[in-house]
Amino acid sequence: MRHQFSKISVIGLGYIGLPTAATIASRGIEVVGVDVNDRAVSLINQGHVHFIEPDLDMLVRAAVTTGRLRALAKPEPAEAFIVAVPTPLTADKRPDLSYIDAAVRSIAPVLEAGNLVVLESTSPVGTTAQLAKSLAELRPDLSFPHEAGERSDIRIAYCPERILPGRMVLELVENDRIIGGLTATCAARANELYKTFVKGSCFLTDASSAELVKLTENAYRDVNIAFANELSMICDRLGVDVWRVIELSNRHPRVNILQPGPGVGGHCIAVDPWFIVDSVPEVARLIRTARDVNDGKPHQVVAKIRRHAERFKDPVIACLGLSYKANVDDLRESPAVDIVGQIVSERIGKVLAVEPHIESLPPALAGQDGLEFMDVRAALEKADIAVLLVDHNAFRSVEAAQLLNKIVIDTRGFWRDRLAVVERPN
Ligand SMILES: NC(=O)c1ccc[n+]([C@@H]2O[C@H](COP(=O)([O-])OP(=O)(O)OC[C@H]3O[C@@H](n4cnc5c(N)ncnc54)[C@H](O)[C@@H]3O)[C@@H](O)[C@H]2O)c1
Prior knowledge:
alpha/beta
């Protein structure tokens, strides 16, 4: 018989954990959110959100006001624990699982027979099984699925998250989910948990497959973007318009090439493929090469800017956009930040950085000589070279007249219509 949950704990209240906690609370279930960040805990308990995400503030406020969501610094007993802590890369591109280890140590003392533990953090294959082993070492009084199989006291599963920043509240409910159990009973129990708030379909599998599904999705995207980025470099060398080549190639019924850009950023696509490479470096050759191609693209953009800057005595370079993708304020792993940083450190010219979604330069760029932060109009007035790095809607209003007599390097093909009428010095 289906057993409903009355109390669920979410460990890690960031971009993934907080919307998950608030959504579950909105279904009438008591939710205890846990975070090591005191500021986040305090803000959430006042009904506020510590990052920008549409509609999330309303959801959190309602959950806190009705008393269904509480934030704490340490876990307390619950029927299910959802772990959504960071899984970044180390400096040598290996998965850093220390946050999962810490989360495991914090929930071990409060675990009780019958509990479910679900890992949501993007993780290398085998992490969920390792989580079970770590918990078993910390709680020898309980039995775990990797040893006791279907009869285990604790159920353990992996359920990756696929929500898109900017649409999280909607996609958390609408998206299909992949649920991988360490046993079939673990998967079935986790399915009951997700069915309390997911309207999309839930597909049940084993934990390793579910872990690899998440990594595969992002590696697939990365490889396809790398193809487009490599093609853009080929076209550059051959003096051919890459946007036109892609447009015409995509008229083939079975070809669908993505759009190139200045590189790949963010905390998922630029990170997750490395988890596969780290596990099986000898066979993940294409995935590794795609990472290298995408990581190399910012250098190619800088080389192009350097080449054009050489014709000016004191070049002024407007760099439009700093975030890792359009219409967000998220600068994590952003190739645009990387490009601006390189131009400044190589002293290629004076840089005028524009980013309409933030108030001031990020710490990685702030306070550097030869770099100023300003709005798009002022930057284009002063610039000899205009570099479009992010296809923000805000840059749509740039007119052909503002680009006249400038070198324009459009890394996104965003101003193609404008460039057709601009007379550009080459
Ligand atoms: N953000 C996304 O769009 C996205 C999408 C899919 C998957 N993911 C994955 O989800 C996981 C979480 O990502 P995120 O974007 O929510 O990260 P985040 O940095 O926004 O949030 C993580 C939170 O966990 C907290 N934390 C760290 N250690 C903790 C501990 N031991 N106990 C309790 N709290 C702890 C941090 O203080 C932080 O608030 C990562 O593995 C990420 O790769 C993220």
